[in-house]
Structure formats: C-alpha cells, structure tokens
Amino acid sequence: LQRANRLAEAITKYRESLRYLPDPGLERHIRELELAMVRPTPTPMPTPMPTYKPPEDTRQTGHIQGRFYHVDLTPYGGKKGTPRKVKDIEVDDSSWVRLKATHEKRLVLDINLPQPVRGTAIAVVNNLDNAHYLPDGFTTTVMTVYTTDGNISFEIKAGVHSSEWNRGETSGADHRWPKELYIGDKRWMPIFRLPQRKTITGLRFEHRDTDKKYYHVGSAPGLCLRGITIVGEAVVISDPVQPPPTDVIPPTKGNVIFNNGNISGVYNNPTKATVFTINQPHVITLIQNYHWNNARGSTPGTIALRDASGRTYGPWQAKGSPGQGGVPNAYWTVYPNITLPAGTYTVIDSDPSTWSQNTDSGKAGHTRVEGYPVTGQQSNVTTPSNQNSGIITAEFINNSRENVHIFVEGDSFGPHNRVTPNERKKISIKAPAQGGFVKFIAGRNGQFLATCRWEYDPDTISGRIPVVKFMEPNILNCITGSR
C-alpha cells in the first residue's frame, strides 16, 4: 500500500499491527508518513516514502522468522509444518498435543527452550476437547511462563480463550464461542501479554481435571495445543558447532544441590536409582548426567525427573559436551529452569545402558543437579533470626471473587503468590535492610491491577507484620497487623 502511495490505507494497516505488537520504531514510521501526507511537495515528482525496517535484533536469524519464535512441540508428540500468518502473528499450528485426565492421562507439559528467547507475548493456538459441559469462564489450564526474573502465570478459560472444537458458533456447548479469537479450522488463538519484555526460558502447562459432571460421554475435558508462538524480540538459537551470538543469554547458574560424580573408574548401566531431595522449593537450573561409555560417549538423549507420587517433569533434550580425554558427548546437560516443590526426585535418563555408575555412587547413575531456593514461598512462622536478617512475614488476603497474585516489587507472577478468593496466606518476604517502604503489587493474567506501600522500621518491627488486602474493584490496602 505504501509503495502504491496509498498512505492513508497503509497507516491504518500499520496501526492495526500495533494493537497486537507495540513497536516504537513503527510508531515513528507512522508519524513520518502522516507528516509526509500534509507536507507540501516542492516538485511534481512524488517524494519517496521511508521504508520501515524492524530493529536489527528482531530480523530473521537462524530459524526464527523476524519477530516470531515457534516453540518446537515435536519432542512432546507434535509436528512441524509450514508457518502461516494469522491476525498479524506467524504461527505453526500443525501440532496436536492433548492434555487430558482420560485417554493420554497427561495433565502437565513442561517445555524447555533450547536457548532463552526474549518476548513480549505468547500466542497459543488451541482448542478444547470433550468440553461441551464446561461453563463460561471455567479455568481449564494454567500456563506458566518461566523467565530469568521470575515466573508469570496465565489461566486459559473456556469461552474466554478457547472452545469445544465439535460445536457450532451458536450452540453445542455451555460456554460462549470466543469469535474474536477464532482463526478457522476449529482453532482459537489467545495472546497472553507479558508485563514487559522478558527473557523466556520455558513454558509449563498444568491442565486441571474436573468434576465428573463436566465429563462428556465419560471423557474428561481436554486442551489440545496446536502451536505456540513467542512474539517480540527473538534471541538467536545458535548452531551448536558455532560460537553463540552475543545476545544469547546463558542459563541461570545455581548452587550444587546434588552431585554423586567421582574420579573412580566407571561402568555402564546403573542398578540403583539416582535420587536427590530438596527440603524447600527450588528452581532447577541444570541437570548433568555422565555417559563415559568406555571412552565412546553417547548421542545425547533426554533427562527427566519423577517425584515420589509418580509425576514426571520433562523430559528435556540434552546437549552433549566432551568428557575426560575429549570423549565426545560424555556429558549430557539440560537447563530446565523449572520450580520444584520440596520433595524427593528420581533422575530419569533415556539411555541407562550408557549412563555411568560405580561403587562410590552406590551403583546409581552419575548426576549433577544445580539450582537455587525460591524466595517468597509460603511460611507461617517468622523466627527472631528472620527478623534480624530482614526477612519478615506478610499476610495476603483476597476479598475478591477471582484468584489474584499479590507480591513484593521485584518478584513476579507465580504459583507461590496466587491467592484464591477469601484465602488468607502468610508469605515470607525480604524487607529493606535499613528500613523504608515496601511496595506490594496485585495482578491477574500478567497485568498489574493495584499497588500499595507499607512502611518498614527494623527497630520497631517486633510483633508487627504487613497485612495486604485485595478488594473489588481492584483496590489494594496495606495495613499493619500483629503476628
């Protein structure tokens, strides 16, 4: 349109694009076009209009097309297809990965990105399955976006973000047909916006089983993931044999949680499980298994974790690196960047026949696990030592009709700070060492709703705690209570 000198129509299209993806460069370009429309032309020849180019770090690099990063669902049963443009978002919706309490009996999907990706929004192409009886606004699934500075959770709701595929537009289900998100072929595409540009390391989908009254012909409601696109600035995924680009962000390094490796001679095929325990929630940043395999190494496979209840986290595709003497792919490494609750976990290796073990490891496969404790987790007790170290207890109260996240500035959306309607939750927070104001934030679906401040004085804190209450319509009050 612009090249045809149809500037008014071009500006309209550009502004429609801004509704989906804010871009200061494009906004400047629109202003230049608007000025060009009213600026007098000194000669009969038309003045050439500037051609908009996106910033350098958002152009096509590797297999990332411009601003869009297509999350690879093939490790989880999906497949790759030809990307297409839908509502100005490029998607590859060739997959069909179902979360469902019956049939597949898979309720959790953890997706580890090969490299961190910068983005401003997540577009999720999906449909519901056997969901005819779900009421409008029913939360089917919680999507957690793992970022380098905290986790952000979004609720995927029937009639709001998706609908039953086997229905008509006006009938066939107890929830509405979200026409504004419909992209054809029985699929919907909600776009979940992040509070600001984030560096994303992974995604987690937690699907919820329902009461049997919502089952359809004995089948539980399911969520079918067709494609996921991260929108915004995309970090290059480098070829492993090439040096990484300067803007690739290395995985967050943690402390060593578990390491049963040793310098003694090793053998293949562990006869004992590799098990570790964490006594409080941790973000797991690295898992590394050793595959010496008689100096041959082994083609990297996957690593997963299984908790005491049988729930599986992962699997994650490992990257290989040389071991002693330059043995190729002796180390298998993954960077999950997921939050695990306190508990005992078994490491699952996809190729135990080449996994190293010896007597010093108790015949268990050699593994190194790194991570760090999650701050802001629930705690009902504040000890004197906590008070002296600037850790205090805050009480969060939700007097609204929906879930809300309440957290201290610097934290972010996550399961640990979700407060359900009428719930009172006590959480340990870090206060300013020298005193001052603590800022609390309330929000939903990644959007801030309200803030309040509470004054902290370390000299008079004994017996006092902040009580933070959220009320409708989007009011957050900070008062002082007693422990």
Secondary-structure map:
Layout: H1 7-20, H2 24-38, E1 68-70, E2 84-86, E3 89-91, E4 97-99, E5 108-129, E6 139-147, E7 150-157, E8 182-184, E9 187-188, E10 191-207, E11 222-231, E12 255-259, E13 267-268, E14 275-278, E15 282-290, E16 302-307, E17 312-317, E18 319-321, E19 331-334, E20 338-340, E21 343-349, E22 356-357, E23 367-373, H3 384-388, E24 391-398, E25 404-408, E26 418-419, E27 424-430, E28 436-444, E29 447-456, E30 464-471, E31 475-482
Parallel strand pairs: 24-30
Antiparallel strand pairs: 1-11, 2-3, 4-11, 5-10, 5-11, 6-7, 6-10, 8-9, 12-23, 13-22, 14-21, 15-19, 15-20, 15-23, 16-17, 16-21, 18-19, 24-27, 25-26, 25-28, 28-29, 30-31
Helix pairs in contact: 1-2
Fill in the keyword field for this structure.
7% helix; seven-stranded antiparallel β-sheet; 3 helices; 483 residues; mainly beta
Describe this structure as you would to a colleague.
- This protein has 483 residues and is mostly beta strands.
- Helix content is 7%, strand content 41%.
- The protein has helices at 7-20, 24-38, 384-388, and strands spanning 68-70, 84-86, 89-91, 97-99, 108-129, 139-147, 150-157, 182-184, 187-188, 191-207, 222-231, 255-259, 267-268, 275-278, 282-290, 302-307, 312-317, 319-321, 331-334, 338-340, 343-349, 356-357, 367-373, 391-398, 404-408, 418-419, 424-430, 436-444, 447-456, 464-471, 475-482.
- The strands form eight sheets. Strands 1, 4, 5, 6, 7, 10 and 11 form a seven-stranded antiparallel β-sheet that branches.
- α1 (7-20) runs antiparallel to α2 (24-38).
- It starts with 6 loop residues before the first helix and ends with a strand.
